[in-house]
Amino acid sequence: MNSLTIRKPDDWHLHLRDGAMLAGVLPYSAGHFARAIIMPNLVPPVVTVADAAAYRNRIEMALPPGSAFQPLMTLYLTEATKPADVEAGFRDGVVTAVKLYPAGATTNSQSGVRDIEKVLPVLEKMAAIGMPLCVHGEVTDPAVDIFDREAVFIERVLDPLLRRIPELRVVMEHLTTRDGVDYATAGGDNLAATITTHHLIINRNAILAGGIRPHYYCLPVAKREEHRLALRKAATSGDRRFFLGTDSAPHLDALKECACGCAGIFSSINTLSCLAHVFEEEGALDRLEAFVSLNGPAFYRLPANEDRITLVRSTEAIHFPASVETGDGPVTVFDPMFPIHWTVANEAN
Ligand SMILES: NC(=O)N[C@@H](CC(=O)O)C(=O)O
Ligand SMILES: [Zn+2]
Ligand SMILES: [Zn+2]
């Protein structure tokens, strides 16, 4: 197959940041995706509905002229979040979901949740109104090995939570393990999971074999090959519980290439090209549309996009820049370490 036309994709997990970085990276998402769930881990975080409305406005102002890209906003859950604010934001269509960061688990998560008991009233309200909770599923217990933090989170936090509030609608964000795939697969209709492009492509060797490669470091950290294979199987299965969340998370190169580099991989520019490669490799190009364009809207109870995009396979490898310039400095682009032959033909803004 040399060309594939599908409904326009959405990105169900995206970091756009703010200011010059926002202006620098937004056009890449707006060109390929109709909508995206916008992560709220700014400094300071997006905690109130008023913060989310103001941030949405800044994103809309930074869009290329004529772009129809729609940012779907999230609230950063803290122990001070008020159920009534969350409910009002959801009912008014300002916020689509709430994001749970265990405090200390990832970039800008210091204001996140330490004690899940303290946020139960918010989660109960969300269950009652059908509002999704997006979860960064890693424990922060320093005694737990970083490669085990997702599996332990499921056992210690997520499973007890879902037993307590069975109606809560949960998206397990950026799955990285077979354990996560198994848990999502065994769950009910209220449980779904996003998978990133890079976790379908790299395993942990990419970060550490032959030297430390900070541009492959993200959280949750990539795991062993068996986990990557489980993620590939889930993503290419067509199973409606799994959908794309790129977790494209730009950081300035200077902040990644240092003694204590930040976690995050910037992939919005070549994500669809990389995914077409992965799905082709798995003999599953006919299921790419389910993963990038259908399963996400179905879970979020939104219509699938009516616009279409066409992906084209060329014989020559396509050149992507090694990094993109932002007003704040360069940001390295995810390198899948294979030649890319697929591109989006009808790039829109
Ligand atoms: N994925 C990452 O490695 N980093 C994300 C945070 C997150 O999604 O956990 C970021 O904001 O940089
Ligand atoms: Zn995360
Ligand atoms: Zn993220």
UniProtKB/TrEMBL annotation:
<feature type="binding site">
    <location>
        <position position="136"/>
    </location>
    <ligand>
        <name>Zn(2+) 2</name>
    </ligand>
</feature>
<feature type="binding site">
    <location>
        <position position="247"/>
    </location>
    <ligand>
        <name>Zn(2+) 1</name>
    </ligand>
</feature>
<keyword id="KW-0378">Hydrolase</keyword>
<dbReference type="InterPro" id="IPR032466">
    <property type="entry name" value="Metal_Hydrolase"/>
</dbReference>
<dbReference type="InterPro" id="IPR002195">
    <property type="entry name" value="Dihydroorotase_CS"/>
</dbReference>
<dbReference type="GO" id="GO:0044205">
    <property type="term" value="P:'de novo' UMP biosynthetic process"/>
</dbReference>
<comment type="subunit">
    <text>Homodimer.</text>
</comment>
<dbReference type="GO" id="GO:0005829">
    <property type="term" value="C:cytosol"/>
</dbReference>
<feature type="binding site">
    <location>
        <position position="174"/>
    </location>
    <ligand>
        <name>Zn(2+) 2</name>
    </ligand>
</feature>
<protein>
    <recommendedName>
        <fullName>Dihydroorotase</fullName>
        <ecNumber>3.5.2.3</ecNumber>
    </recommendedName>
</protein>
<dbReference type="GO" id="GO:0006207">
    <property type="term" value="P:'de novo' pyrimidine nucleobase biosynthetic process"/>
</dbReference>
<keyword id="KW-0862">Zinc</keyword>
<feature type="domain" description="Amidohydrolase-related">
    <location>
        <begin position="11"/>
        <end position="304"/>
    </location>
</feature>
<dbReference type="InterPro" id="IPR004721">
    <property type="entry name" value="DHOdimr"/>
</dbReference>
<feature type="binding site" description="via carbamate group">
    <location>
        <position position="99"/>
    </location>
    <ligand>
        <name>Zn(2+) 2</name>
    </ligand>
</feature>
<comment type="function">
    <text>Catalyzes the reversible cyclization of carbamoyl aspartate to dihydroorotate.</text>
</comment>
<feature type="binding site">
    <location>
        <position position="15"/>
    </location>
    <ligand>
        <name>Zn(2+) 1</name>
    </ligand>
</feature>
<keyword id="KW-0665">Pyrimidine biosynthesis</keyword>
<dbReference type="Pfam" id="PF01979">
    <property type="entry name" value="Amidohydro_1"/>
</dbReference>
<dbReference type="InterPro" id="IPR006680">
    <property type="entry name" value="Amidohydro-rel"/>
</dbReference>
<feature type="binding site">
    <location>
        <position position="41"/>
    </location>
    <ligand>
        <name>substrate</name>
    </ligand>
</feature>
<feature type="binding site">
    <location>
        <position position="13"/>
    </location>
    <ligand>
        <name>Zn(2+) 1</name>
    </ligand>
</feature>
<feature type="binding site">
    <location>
        <position position="251"/>
    </location>
    <ligand>
        <name>substrate</name>
    </ligand>
</feature>
<keyword id="KW-0479">Metal-binding</keyword>
<dbReference type="GO" id="GO:0008270">
    <property type="term" value="F:zinc ion binding"/>
</dbReference>
<comment type="pathway">
    <text>Pyrimidine metabolism; UMP biosynthesis via de novo pathway; (S)-dihydroorotate from bicarbonate: step 3/3.</text>
</comment>
<feature type="binding site">
    <location>
        <position position="263"/>
    </location>
    <ligand>
        <name>substrate</name>
    </ligand>
</feature>
<feature type="binding site" description="via carbamate group">
    <location>
        <position position="99"/>
    </location>
    <ligand>
        <name>Zn(2+) 1</name>
    </ligand>
</feature>
<comment type="similarity">
    <text>Belongs to the metallo-dependent hydrolases superfamily. DHOase family. Class II DHOase subfamily.</text>
</comment>
<feature type="active site">
    <location>
        <position position="247"/>
    </location>
</feature>
<dbReference type="GO" id="GO:0004151">
    <property type="term" value="F:dihydroorotase activity"/>
</dbReference>
<feature type="binding site">
    <location>
        <begin position="15"/>
        <end position="17"/>
    </location>
    <ligand>
        <name>substrate</name>
    </ligand>
</feature>
<feature type="modified residue" description="N6-carboxylysine">
    <location>
        <position position="99"/>
    </location>
</feature>
<feature type="binding site">
    <location>
        <position position="219"/>
    </location>
    <ligand>
        <name>substrate</name>
    </ligand>
</feature>
<feature type="binding site">
    <location>
        <position position="136"/>
    </location>
    <ligand>
        <name>substrate</name>
    </ligand>
</feature>
